[in-house]
Design goal:
Elements (H helix, E strand, L loop, with lengths): L1 H5 L16 H11 L12 H6 L7 H10 L8 E4 L2 E4 L11
Antiparallel strand pairs: 1-2
């Protein structure tokens, strides 16, 4: 957020851990990122290691897993004008401008 403030850009923080994201929202977000659902997974999360490591799931099944366990979703994600980036490192936000 500091990076966006420094760039003098307005933004909205979506706290999907507090307000769960829907399947439709997550699907659109993945499309905006231009990646596959599996590429949005945080594979170092314990829930991934315990429940999903080594499993082959369909895109819909990975999306369902992220809905059930939102900690699996990479973050932060920044969206602008229908495009999105996983903002790690923060400088990736520049790709949206």
């Amino acid at each position: 957020m500091d990076f966006l403030n420094e760039m003098n850009q307005s933004f909205e923080v979506v706290e999907y851990m507090k307000n769960p994201i829907t399947v439709e929202e997550l699907t659109i977000l993945i499309q905006c990122l231009g990646i596959s659902p599996i590429d949005l997974l945080r594979k170092n999360e314990q829930v991934y290691k315990d429940r999903f490591k080594g499993k082959i799931l369909s895109d819909n099944q990975w999306i369902a897993a992220m809905i059930e366990f939102p900690k699996l979703i990479e973050r932060p994600i920044v969206v602008k004008n229908g495009k999105a980036v996983i903002a790690r490192p923060t400088e990736r936000i520049n790709e949206l401008f």
